[in-house]
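Thread amino acids onto this structure.
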């Protein structure tokens, strides 16, 4: 009787793990609005945390982690050829990617290794926005694409910082996917 119960429990856990891995790691809150020209310049803007003032400093991502995320984001946008240039200086940029960290859990690789079952997982949820900068004085910048992106690390061998790299990859992939869809629709209209 006990082995039957354990077998069912193990099958249930395996199904749960498989279903968790199949979920989307993003929710687009604003679909891409045309026009967006791939030949323009994009800057990686400010990424801030959106935590309450009483949130412990030790539980927040470090400025180095945020800087590394910005570098991952620039690299992923370059890799997908979304823009002609991606830089950290926004003086000449037509577009800026900004964001805020909504949820963060550092996690522990040691706990993931020795205990597992979701304990010690690292987790990050970010809101990212692609902003078209105003060209004329008096105009306001316009958000043309936005979404909430979340990732977690459950494998003991991966560092918690891998979540930031995965989010950067998801953002660039979703933006590129929407640009390709827009180009295809434009081509079919012609």
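Threaded sequence (190 positions):
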């Amino acid at each position: 009787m006990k082995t039957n119960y354990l077998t069912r429990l193990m099958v249930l856990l395996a199904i749960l793990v498989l279903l968790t891995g199949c979920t989307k790691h993003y929710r687009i809150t604003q679909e891409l609005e045309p026009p967006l020209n791939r030949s323009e310049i994009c800057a990686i803007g400010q990424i801030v945390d959106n935590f309450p003032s009483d949130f412990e400093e030790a539980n927040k991502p470090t400025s180095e982690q945020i800087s590394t995320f910005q570098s991952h984001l620039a690299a992923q946008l370059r890799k997908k050829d979304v823009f002609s240039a991606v830089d950290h200086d926004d003086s000449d940029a037509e577009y800026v990617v900004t964001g805020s960290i909504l949820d963060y859990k550092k996690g522990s690789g040691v706990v993931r290794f020795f205990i597992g079952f979701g304990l010690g997982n690292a987790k990050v949820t970010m809101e990212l926005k692609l902003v078209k900068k105003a060209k004329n004085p008096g105009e306001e910048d316009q958000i043309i694409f936005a979404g909430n992106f979340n990732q977690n690390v459950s494998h003991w061998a991966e560092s918690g910082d891998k979540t930031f790299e995965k989010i950067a990859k998801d953002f660039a992939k979703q933006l590129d996917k929407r640009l390709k869809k827009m180009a295809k629709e434009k081509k079919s209209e012609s």
